[in-house]
Amino acid sequence: MRKSKLITFNKWQDYYYKLKNQILESHHIRSALTSLFNHINNHISFDFDPIFIIQFKIKIDTNQIRSISFVQTVKFSEFNDLLLIFIEFWNIKDITYFSLKPSDIIFTYKILGKEPYGDLIKKSKLNRMRSIKKNSNFYFKGYNLPCTMDYSKWGKIISECDTFAIVKKVNSSLIYHIKITNRELRVEVKFKDKTILEFTDILLEKGKLNSFIRTIKKQEYIFIDGKLIVKKVKKETKFLQPIFHQESISRDFLTMDLETRTIDGVMTPYSISICDGEDTTSFYLSDFKTANEMLKSAIISIMKPKYHDYKVFIHNFSYFDGIFLLRILSELTDIVIKPIIRDGRIINLKFSFSILKYKFNLYFRDSYLLLPFSLKELAFNFDVTAKGIFPYKFVNNKNLSLDYIGKIPEYEYFDNLSLQDYNQYCEGFKKESWDLRKETIKYCNQDVITLYLVMDKFQKKIFTLFRIDVLKYPTLSSLSFAIYRSGYLKNFKIPLIEGNLFTDIKKGYSGGMVDVYKPFPDKGVKIYRYDVNSLYPSVMKNDNMPVGDPIYFEGDISLISIGTGYDLITNPFGFFEVEVTAPKSIRIPLLQTRIETENGIRTVAPLGTWKGTYFSEEINNAIKYGYKFKIIRGYLFEKQKIFSEFVDYIYKLKVNSKRGTPDYIISKLLLNSLYGRFGMNPEMENHIITSEKDSLLIINKKIVTNIIDLKNGKELISFFDSQDWDQEKAKKSLNISVPIAAAVTAAARIYMAKFKTMKDIELFYTDTDSIDINKPLPSQYVGEELGQMKLEHIFNEVIFLAPKVYGGKTDSYEYVKIKGLKNPITFDEMKPLLFKNQKVEINQEKWYRNISSGNINIKQEIYTLMINNFKRKLIYNDQNKFIDTIPLYLNGDKLD
């Protein structure tokens, strides 16, 4: 056990409880929390029962820290309650966490003293895991009504004629008043003279009074032979609304760039430049006492009324530069900062400040989220002044003066530079010494000028094409979404799905299938790698999408579909929860599902039986290959081709543009960015940076999920407004329609299924939009058109070790891809990994972003590469060599 530092009031502290990289169990949590409380008791004597704020975290073997619980506010005397909450949070984590074997339990805590904040929080506030309904079925009212249209069986007939009847319900004071037509009964159920219920029965088949549809308000009940088969209810939703084209574009933006160096494994900035389109300003560390002072001066230089509401673009701000700037920005204003953060990336940061009682704003954005290419590539594609040349590694010497003037740094200090270009660079310094300050500022200035010119051209091009201002949209997906809404939404009724509907349909939203089927071919057999030309845009153009108000149903609607004799539903279209039985003989299963394995949640394509939620078209496709389904419940939609015009226009732009030009780049980006925006997760945390005092008010009122102490009197707090997830989602309208996103990915899997099931072709590996096979595809499938295949590689040798881990050799080059590895190994180094338990250990850099300290730590860590494919069963020969795979087998959602 490692003790924390000396305990003080009103300060955030971390307490580490050492584990032995073992599986974490409840008794470890108890021991760790007991140790913390004993530690506090040993250092402080209380004359009151203090409130303290605490969060349970773990440190795993990769030095990453993961939050386990929400932030809790408890009195010191409430040890047992706190322990139960922490154990509850651990127990509800998925199996992935249980296999982590953490090195430490960490408690991040703050003890509130009587002064100065003791009165802000006076009572405990235990935040349990947010309530998410396990079963989100809609409630159908359980009316006790007869299951037949033969009203003589409803009770005692009081009066009757051809068009009307009155029937007294058995053992009840209720009276049925029935209007009779040829195939229909309109019924009022009355108590005395008051109507308490109305319903309509419509006969399905002449002479069969036990087969009918009963409608009560918005609900339908379908009876066949006296049995209730299906219940339906229409769920009214809002629809996606169009937006107007812009009449002009704003020119209000700046660009900024930071240059960094790494000393003793810690990366910090040492130069910064800013461009407003007319002037470029630079700041250099040797002119300041600290990097923080330099950064403050740079930010202060743009805190001017003339820059009010300007966007400040920094390439890779969301993941890199923002780490250095967040603390600095918080120190330059007393106004709350509300960054929008998703998946650990800062999407937009509104920075407000006051001058003479007037409020002004700056918005920090990441240009990489709009143009996800390196600045060097963008300079080339947009035909603007290129980035300069600079020896990044040279400045990492802690003994080097930042005012160094002398010999040009050696070639080894430059990255991605040919020797010829280096020699040419040196030619420029024959008559003068190389000046680090001058060259850094020159290089940094060029970066911000290049980025400004790129953003300027990008903004003008988007406006010319679509009459949309890029400055209004922080990400590529939001920009593509705005383009669609402004020009292509038309009158399509795209439903906005929230709350329970989102929870249900989201279960049917999964990505492409990535699997190894066979690790290598026989000697001498070539492997052909084909990629689909714009897979997702292709299915978006050609396939129907779910539109209109969803109709929720319970029961097997296949019993009333075409071919049953009733034909009440023509080609049911939507998302259905089903019981699946896969054919035993299929080598390459077509339906995937999520399962728990000892190594966490995995998406697999198994054999056997299970329950899942699927798009109706994917169900229909699977039936062709022997799958069987029993429908339990689901959502029916209308269908329309809603993306055809959008895809046609942008794809035509791509086809008619020269590769690498702005039009080509823009069309390629927009084509692939739209569908995912519809499936965005609505469970969004709020984030604010505020004072320690005000943070206590938030802790007291909100569900706080994380707190980062910025060590300057400010804290970055993440929280939900509500304990109930459904309430949280319902109050936010994010223009989300997960059925669209789920239908697109399902349609893509259907498209790929035809290549996986081709006769006389052996499939070795597949990714979302690619296949690796043992012979060329028939010519009709190959070409340059949207959705056609294009041949990418012909491998003479190839190895597929796991999803996203493979390599091969062609006649002219070697190709290796390993997910998560910065510097892939050679193809020959991969070969030993085909044998069981063999591994390759690679030393590589890993970056740890420290928002609290405003820096990035770089550590050398071992990356271990070995076969660990949990998606199919691996087959080894007598020499323990990996030679084949077969599907996993599920039996009622459990692996056999």
UniProtKB/TrEMBL annotation:
<dbReference type="GO" id="GO:0003677">
    <property type="term" value="F:DNA binding"/>
</dbReference>
<keyword id="KW-0808">Transferase</keyword>
<keyword id="KW-0238">DNA-binding</keyword>
<protein>
    <recommendedName>
        <fullName>Probable DNA polymerase</fullName>
        <ecNumber>2.7.7.7</ecNumber>
    </recommendedName>
</protein>
<comment type="similarity">
    <text>Belongs to the DNA polymerase type-B family.</text>
</comment>
<dbReference type="InterPro" id="IPR043502">
    <property type="entry name" value="DNA/RNA_pol_sf"/>
</dbReference>
<dbReference type="GO" id="GO:0005739">
    <property type="term" value="C:mitochondrion"/>
</dbReference>
<dbReference type="InterPro" id="IPR015833">
    <property type="entry name" value="DNA-dir_DNA_pol_B_mt_lin_plsmd"/>
</dbReference>
<dbReference type="GO" id="GO:0003887">
    <property type="term" value="F:DNA-directed DNA polymerase activity"/>
</dbReference>
<dbReference type="InterPro" id="IPR004868">
    <property type="entry name" value="DNA-dir_DNA_pol_B_mt/vir"/>
</dbReference>
<dbReference type="GO" id="GO:0006260">
    <property type="term" value="P:DNA replication"/>
</dbReference>
<keyword id="KW-0548">Nucleotidyltransferase</keyword>
<dbReference type="GO" id="GO:0000166">
    <property type="term" value="F:nucleotide binding"/>
</dbReference>
<dbReference type="InterPro" id="IPR012337">
    <property type="entry name" value="RNaseH-like_sf"/>
</dbReference>
<keyword id="KW-0239">DNA-directed DNA polymerase</keyword>
<feature type="domain" description="DNA-directed DNA polymerase family B mitochondria/virus">
    <location>
        <begin position="303"/>
        <end position="757"/>
    </location>
</feature>
<dbReference type="Pfam" id="PF03175">
    <property type="entry name" value="DNA_pol_B_2"/>
</dbReference>
<keyword id="KW-0235">DNA replication</keyword>
<dbReference type="InterPro" id="IPR036397">
    <property type="entry name" value="RNaseH_sf"/>
</dbReference>
<keyword id="KW-0614">Plasmid</keyword>
<dbReference type="InterPro" id="IPR006172">
    <property type="entry name" value="DNA-dir_DNA_pol_B"/>
</dbReference>
<dbReference type="InterPro" id="IPR023211">
    <property type="entry name" value="DNA_pol_palm_dom_sf"/>
</dbReference>
<keyword id="KW-0496">Mitochondrion</keyword>
